[in-house]
C-alpha cells in the first residue's frame, strides 16, 4: 500500500501548545495557520482534535478555548509561561519563555534542543536573588546585554525560574523552538488531554 507523506496533516506537540496559547482569544483558521506556519489542512485537523477533546469552541468570529481549555492553559502556565516576543536578536524575531521549578539541566543540552528545532540561536538564563544570570558562571545578563535584560523585566519572574530565549529567521520557528525546550524538560507533567492531541 503506498501513500504520500505530504497528504497527511502534520503537527507536533509544540504546535498544539502554541495553539492553546493563541486561542485564549478567538482566532480564525487562516490566522492560526500564518502564526504557526502550518498548512491549513494541518490546522483544520488540529482544531478538530482540540474540539473533539472539548478544549475549544467555535463561533462565527473564530475558535477559542472552552472552560475546559482555559483550565488546561492554567495547568500549562504552572509549568511554563507563554513565549513573549522580545526585541530582535541578530536581526531575527526572538521569544522568551519562563520554565518554573526546572529539573536539573545543562545549558548546552537545552541550546542544542532549540537549535535542533529550527532556532538559529538560544540563550539559557536563570533568575536568582533578583537577578537574571548565566547559570554557568553567574554573570548578570544586564552586564552583557542590557537591552534584553530590560525587556525581560516585564516578565513575571520568580526565584529559580529558568529563562529560555530563542531566535530564528521565521517568527513561528523562534516561538516553537522556545516551547520545544520547555517540553523537553516538562513534557511528562503536561495535562493528559494536551498529549492526546498528537497521539
UniProtKB/TrEMBL annotation:
One of its GO terms (cellular component) is cytoplasm. It comes from the Archaea. Residues 13-71 form the PH0730-like N-terminal domain. Pfam families: DUF4443 (PF14544), PH0730-like_N (PF22167). Keywords: ATP-binding, Ligase, Nucleotide-binding, Protein biosynthesis. Residues 95-185 form the DUF4443 domain. GO terms for molecular function: aminoacyl-tRNA ligase activity; ATP binding. GO terms for biological process: translation. InterPro entries: DUF4443 (IPR029349), GAD-like_sf (IPR004115), PH0730-like_N (IPR054039), WH-like_DNA-bd_sf (IPR036388), WH_DNA-bd_sf (IPR036390). This is Uncharacterized protein. It comes from Palaeococcus pacificus DY20341.
